[in-house]
Amino acid sequence: MRAVVYDRYGGPAQLRLADPAPPAPQPGQVLVRVEAVGLNAYDWRVLRGAPFLVRLQQGLFRPKNPILGSDIAGVVERVDDQSGFRPGQRVFGCLEGCGTAGLAVGGLAELVAAQPSGLAPMPDGLSFEQAASLPMAGGTALIAVRDIAQVQPGMAVLVHGAAGGVGSFAVQIAKALGGQVTGVCRTRHVDFVASLGVDEVIDSTREDFTAPGRTWDAVIDVAANRPIGQLREVVNPGGVVASVGFSSLRHLVGVSLAALGQKDSRRVVMVAADNTDNRYLHTLSDLVTTGQLRPVIDHVYSLDQTAQAFQHIEYGHPAGKIIVLLDE
Questions:
Q1: Which of 67, 63, 79, 74 lies closest to 26, judged by CA?
Q2: pLDDT tens string 222-281
């Protein structure tokens, strides 16, 4: 089968096309013919082995999992009788738990052995590219907005980093739950974020949303480039900062300490998505089917352009998701 592999940590230049042996599914697993892969920040962090904590799972000096790719959409090729799926069924999902040390890997290949708990039937009317954009980013946004922030009708919600994969889903889910949503993004993404249905867009290059005078009931922090103390100051008493991403190990430690040492009723919570629970996939599917959520794709690359796709997601500040399409 065709696949993109790597055998040492580093940038996109480490990725190359290869022809490894197809995976041998374990009992209970589902063999999926992959049509599209959705890339996440998670993927390039595993590629780089950064922060160093990644290497404690993936291998200190060389990666144990040679094929990256966390989110997939494709067609069931072979199943275990107890899996709940059938050959020929169109599915999407996350590959968490499919790699060594439980990592979400293996999608950048024509075939992958997936856990049925991380898969769900594709929503009707979606392309493979759209479906592959949903699992990790959509599930993370759902947990941040619905489960942690517990957005209710009329709540004031700010999404910091509203143009990316998680952010673009977060603003739509917050609106679906009745929130009054403010999206923060760069100048070139203002029109894009406005098109997602937010009530207000703040251009982060022209206005500091942490300046005194404005507060929100919940802040969903995807951009992860502001001190956590500044974000707490713009949250109303009883509100929450849901911290999704991290920009450095120092930032991660700061958020972790803030989450442990709560000073008052304004909470800081780190968002940890359970990508092995397909209930989130079914909820995302329902939101898509009812028109409350639409996947937004910035760019689609072919398998032999995977290195360019990784370059784009790490440095290009995409609006929406980056997709690798295997049959292009």
A1: 79
A2: 988 888 889 999 999 999 999 997 766 666 667 777 777 666 788 899 898 889 899 999
Q: Quick one: 76 exposed, middle or buried, by C-beta within 10 A (0-12, 13-18, 19+)?
A: buried
DSSP H or E run through 193:
helix 190-195
**Joined tokens for residue 192:** 């894009």
Instruction: Quickly list DSSP for 214-244.
Output: --EEEEEE-S--S-HHHHHHTEEEEEEEEE-
Q: So what's the pLDDT on residue 108?
A: 98
- What is the full DSSP assignment across 158-180? EEETTTSHHHHHHHHHHHHTT-E
Task: State the Cα angle at 8 between 104 and 166, rounded to 5°.
Answer: 35
From the centroid of its chain, how far is CA 239?
24
In this predicted structure, what is the pLDDT of residue 249? 64
Task: Please count the other Cβ atoms lying within 10 Å of the Cβ belonging to residue 299.
Answer: 17
Distances, alpha carbon 32 to alpha carbons 4, 29, 306, in Å: 16, 9, 20
